[in-house]
Amino acid sequence: MHTVWKGAISFGLVHVPVKMFSATEDKDISMRYVHKECGSPLSYVRKCPVCEKEVQWEEISKGYEYEKGKFVLFEKEELEQIAEQANKSIAILDFVDLSEIDPIYFQKTYYLAPDQAGGNAYQLLKEAMSQSGKIGIAKISIRSKSSLAAIRVLENCLAIETMFYPDEIRPVSQVPNLPENITVNEKELGMAQMLIDQLSTPFDPEKYTDDYRSRLLELIEHKVTGEEIKIAPAKQETNVIDLMAALQASIEAAKPAMTPTDPGKPKKTAKAKTKTAAAEDKQVAGAEGPKPKRRKTAKKNETVS
Amino acid sequence: MKLTPVKPFEPIMTDVLPSGDNWIAQIKWDGVRMLAYNDGEETELINRKANKRTRQYPELWDTSVYCKAESVILDGEIIALVDGTPSFHQVMKRDGLRQEQQIRARVRQIPIVYMVFDILYCNGEWVTSRPLRDRQALLEEMLIPGPHVQLVPSYPDLPLLHEISRRHRLEGIVVKDLSSVYAVDGKDKRWQKLKNIMDLNAVVGGVTYRDGIVNALLLGLYDEESRLIYIGHAGTGKLGVADWRRITEEAAGMAQKERPFANQPERHKGAAWIRPQWVVKVNFLEWTVHGTLRQPSIQAFVDMAPEECRLDQ
Questions:
Q1: Buried b vs exposed e over A138-151: b needs ≥16 C-beta within 10 Å?
Q2: A244, B153: Cβ pair inside 8 Å?
Q3: Cα B158 versus chain centre, distance
Q4: How far is the C-alpha of B159 from the C-alpha of A148, rounded, in Å?
Q5: Which of B82, B113, B151 sits opposite A263 (nearest CB)?
Q6: In sequence order, which residues have a C-beta less than 8 Å from that of residue A229 and are 6 or more positions away?
Q7: B109 to chain A: nearest residue by CA?
Q8: By CA distance, what is A265's nearest residue in B?
């Protein structure tokens, strides 16, 4: 796990240096866009449609479109200035009961680990929260975004849940077609409750798996092993045997009378043909490139020296 | 594996060809030096630094395809071609892979050939104490050349092969004493290399930028007092736009205030210093009188300890 944020929890006069790690990971299988014709992955170009040219990062600024086609531009420093000053701290504002917070508020969970000699303060905060059964509501800013957060004890670790601000949550009143003032049949209600009772079981997260992902992985594996892969085409390379043949031809052209040493003949193909000793003399004069593989006894190599 | 990995014999650098009849010359194939071990049951591929590269080259797993011996240790160079010529940069695209899926995919994209030139062990017996002449005969008897394995040819005319290697723009030649035994972990004049292209592994101690992207690396080598000595800028070579972007990203995390070089590099204005951790292989024309490289060109990033990049390499 790599650290996503480093800072300190402050509450009252207690200061707890912590490191933050993502508690969850997205296991979606990502795919790339590939040109069907040649199998190469596409590259993306940042292009200005007016100047009709590719734009470098240094030429790019952030802009807010306040009116169709009209932008106010911001430099990085300007945006940094208004970011929370308390950038490096998680300030606990209140302690509340977890059951008071509806799950709709929760965004993403991170683990907090004590940083540099923060072990004692960390342990103190964790123990106090654990005994009181309360969770802390805090403000935190990660990169430039500030959010509300809940700090709680998870097993033997402190965890922090980033939360939406209330104005980021849409009211239920905006949902269309919700039934009002309709009475339900007592008998049907009883049946429904019975069904719920029958299906009631302790929550066992292990039994739920991502079936789509496992099917996709299986399909990927199948395609990869079945060699049905789209691969960016490699340039057709000249075979090393061609190069060896070219070297041999150069040598023979330079010195027609030269006899290569025994182990030295480049092999034309893997399919070796047994060559008789008589053919050896012919080969000296041959300037037609490498010979088929010869098999020889060790003794013949004595001709080298 | 029952066989204990050994360090291969290495040639020394020379610019003069030895005289005498007892020598043969071979093309110096520019790739990664690799020993293939098969103890009768399993195969391992292990490089000069004793690192396993078995997973990276599935083509060589089944030794029975290319070797008749029941058990064997072969010595050679794994190469990959670009435009018909061996390219170190190209083979590093295979050698550097760690992910199973990528390895499988690149087997098809970048074909490799194992250029075998020696045999150390055969059918349960070490053959390193036999002269090269005998080992070559044994190797020829055992090796079955194919699309992924070739026997490196030997030639008695050393100057001619040297000339031809230059004409074909190859890295150089290695000349070997036919009566020499195979000295494990040795390096002496029984094998000598003559290079057409100079190269070395250098440490990157700084970078320069153009338009926010790194466009050159500042190179250095350690002297005998372990000081990093600047030896030149390298901005050309085999790296592509994507490589430079990656370098830019990673260099940002390696920045340091102090200059890692003991001497002041030329054109140091605009240079940003980085922790000397990267090692790159560079080709170059010659050393200048100022002790810098003329026309260095970057071949690849290599997995090597920076402190091993010494001026006397």
A1: bebbbeeebbbbbb
A2: yes
A3: 22
A4: 78
A5: B151
A6: A223, B105, B108
A7: A234
A8: B153
β-sheet bridge partners, residue A134: A97
Rounded to 5 degrees, φ, ψ at B43 are -110, 140
**How many alpha carbons fall within 13 Å on the CB side of residue A48?**
11
Q: For residue B108, give the 3-state DSSP assignment.
A: helix
Residue A216 tokens read as: 């996709």
- Cβ partners under 8 Å of residue B135, min gap 6: B118, B119, B127, B182
Chain centroid to CA B278: how far? 16
List the Cα angle A87/A88/A89 in 5-degree steps.
100
Instruction: Give the number of residues written for chain A.
Output: 305
Minimum Cα–Cα distance from A227: chain B residue: B105
- Pairing type for strands A89-97 and A134-142 reads antiparallel
d(CA B16, CA A15): 72
ipTM of this complex prediction, to 2 decimal places: 0.75
Digits of tens for pLDDT over chain A (305 positions)? Answer: 788 888 888 887 788 899 999 999 888 888 889 888 888 888 888 888 888 898 988 889 899 988 888 889 988 888 777 765 546 788 898 999 988 899 999 999 999 999 887 888 899 899 999 999 899 999 887 766 778 999 999 999 999 999 999 999 999 988 988 888 888 888 888 888 888 888 888 888 888 888 888 888 888 877 776 655 555 555 445 588 888 888 888 888 876 544 444 444 444 444 444 444 444 444 444 444 444 444 444 444 444 43
Q: What tokens appear for A58 in the block?
A: 């240094």
- B208 phi, psi to nearest 5 deg: -120, 155
pTM of the model: 0.53
Work out the minimum CA distance from A290 to partner chain B, whole angstroms.
11
Q: Rounded distance, CA A164 to CA A144, Å?
A: 15
How is residue A143 annotated by DSSP?
T
